[in-house]
Every structure is written in C-alpha cells, then in structure tokens.
Amino acid sequence: VAERAMCQLLGMNCADKTDCSFSFRGFCCRGGQTDIHAHGLGVAIYEGKGLRTFLDTLPATESPIAQLVAQYPIKTYNMMAHIRYATQGDVSLENVHPFQREMWGIQWCFAHNGEVPKFSIQNVDEHPLLGKTRRGEMSYHAVGDTDSEAVFCAILNALKAEFSELPTLPVLHETIRLLCDEIIAEQQDETIFNFLLGCGEYTLFAYSWPGRRPGSTVWNGLYYIVREPPFKTAKLIDVDYEIDFGKVMSPTDRVAVITTKPLTNEDGWKEFKRGELLMFDKGLPYSKPCDCEQVELAGRGLCSKALRKSFSAPIPIMSSSPSGVRDITDICRGAAI
Hints:
alpha+beta, 7-stranded antiparallel β-sheet, 28% strand, globular, disordered C terminus
C-alpha cells in the first residue's frame, strides 16, 4: 500500500575494505523500480577520518548520483545508504538521509526507517530532551522537517551532555540503548524506530524497534547477514544478477550487510529482535556492552583529537530509569542486562 510505505536502509561493515556495489545494485532497484521508495537517495561512505556523502532527491533508479556510486566502487570498512518514501517533510535535499554531523572531532551519520511520534511534532520546542540535555544548551538542530533528523540531533545532544571525555565502546553501547528506551517509552505501539548510526571509520550501530503502520501489511524491521569464508554464490532478489563471492573475496574478508529487507535469496539472514541494538566491527555483530570491550581493547574504539578517552567512566542511567550509575564490570557479569 503506497500511502503506508516507509523508507529502506542499507548498511555494510567489513573486516577488510570492500565496495558495496553488489548490495547497492539490488538496493537501488527498490528506489522506484521493484518498490516505491522514490523520494530520494543518500549514501555515506567512511574513508579514514573522512566521510563521503552523496545525496539526491531523484529516485535511485533515475539518479545520476546513484549511477556514479555504482560505477565508482569505493572500498570502505563502513557505509550506509537510504532510499526515501516521504511520510514527513517535503521531497527536498535537506530531508534526504543519511544525516551527518561532527561531534568530538568524529564524523557521525544516521539513517532511519519508521515513525517517531515524539519527534514528529513540527514545533521543536515540544520535542523531548533526552538524557541530561538542557534546553538552550543544545549544539545540534535539525535543518529539515523530518522526525528522523530531529531524533538524530537529540541523540547527539544527549551524548554530548553526558560525556566530557570520549566514552569507550561498552559505555557508548549501553548509553545509546538507554536513549532508545527513552525514545520509545510510553509510545511503544505507535513508534517504529529502525536506524543505522555510524561513528567513525570502523563502528556501525544498528537498532530495531519494528512494526507496521496502521492498516498496512508492510513490515518495517531490520535484517543482517554476515558473509565470511567459505564464501558462496548469492543472487539478488530485485534484479537478475548473482555473484560467486568465493571468486572475488579473500580468505581474510568478512562483511556484514544490514538492510530493511533481505537483498538476496541466500540462507543466513537474521532478523533483529525487538529492541535489539547491535554494534558492528570488522563485519561482526556485538549485542552486549561487555562484548564490545574486546573491540575497544583491540584499539578500534572511538578516535578523536578533541577529547581524551575515559576508561573508567560509569555507564549513565537516563532520566526514564532508576537513579544511579552502573559500572561496566557489573554489566559484563550480567547484572544489568
């Protein structure tokens, strides 16, 4: 049902630098050919500390920018893409995902599928403040009219208000999860909140609070697959094209692909659990803060020239939770999950 459709997401996180041309080819077909997401295309590709972004208001199937990205395969550890079906905000460039902001000397980007009623109100003064955010002290504000950009800015404002030192990945994982709890609190049935959040060259967070719009049969969630040796052949669902990954991938390659709906007919696609937050690094998913600790200790945490890192900061409790703080060691023992 066209009037009840939503946007679609594509993310990729890799052990070795890889281009997204195969998945991107099938994904773009859904932008006006095999599906109706024809109100814009956006791609964000990390390169070192930089972030290449490509945005267009044209359908992906008609966009010269989509053709450019497809013909100019950029190898990366971390990327995301979005095809839009406008449910809030005009079809205009400022409303095209992914959205991008700098915080702590790190390029952050965000793409969203769903509806977040708390942030759908056009009067921004009525938007909730997350965590320790105080009105009048916010650094991030939406440029366009979407609830997606508004909630992205709210998350960044809450993270900036919470930390004076760069958080470790376990602390960041738990903090983002608590912010997601705040966002959906008291409106769980009305809220559909699926997003990709990139925070630097290596790290990609993905969260799913799935659902259907009233009267719709279209399910809006997230799925992922991890491709690793031994590689197999995969065939795209939206176009007659297949590839034998065993012939093009190396033994050290591993790639996680995250998308609104599976792009291929291969086995191995997993649907996110309701309320699940996964952090991806080197093509592997990490579901708990203590799992993220090994990635941090391997030197793949957030990297910034602007803030020094704190390795002893407790995990905060947001305003919607009981007061107090939780130490990461307690969480790793299972006391807080």
